[in-house]
User: Which sequence fits this backbone?
């Protein structure tokens, strides 16, 4: 008898927790053909880094991190990246990534290895993603 009362309560709490943990606030940014670019606006965070320059001077750069999803309709895949952008240097790093079958949401690949800094150009989708991120309010 107790199980009948507790089980629905437990399942309700578990469902609420599961949807909260996996909740995303993905906003559409741009599309190039059948490929769409999205940013989870709730994942945006800002930091700084200081690097030594060739002339031995220190330079501080603003960094922004966000979860970015790239959906490729032709291959039925959703690529979810935790990314870090340096707008001034026009470079980005992929800090971790997951590949998901779009229809079933099943993960088929995952890596926690960060890439080296990769450049992007002003006409690339990454520039559009960076511009979108910097347009978001900094409430955090």
Assistant:
């Amino acid at each position: 008898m107790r199980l009948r009362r507790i089980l629905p309560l437990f399942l309700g709490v578990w469902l609420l927790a599961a949807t909260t943990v996996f909740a995303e606030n993905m906003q559409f940014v741009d599309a190039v053909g059948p490929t769409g670019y999205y940013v989870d606006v709730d994942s945006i965070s800002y930091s700084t880094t200081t690097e030594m320059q060739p002339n031995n001077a220190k330079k501080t750069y603003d960094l922004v991190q966000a979860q970015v999803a790239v959906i490729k309709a032709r291959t039925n895949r959703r690529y979810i990246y935790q990314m870090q952008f340096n707008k001034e240097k026009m470079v980005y790093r992929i800090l971790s990534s997951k590949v998901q079958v779009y229809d079933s949401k099943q993960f088929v690949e995952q890596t926690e290895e960060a890439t080296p800094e990769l450049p992007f150009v002003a006409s690339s989708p990454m520039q559009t993603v960076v511009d979108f991120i910097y347009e978001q309010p900094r409430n955090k």
In short: Residues 2-21 form the longest helix (20 residues). Residues 28 and 38 are 5 Å apart (CA to CA). Strands lie at 26-32, 35-52, 58-72, 77-86, 91-101, 107-111, 118-119.
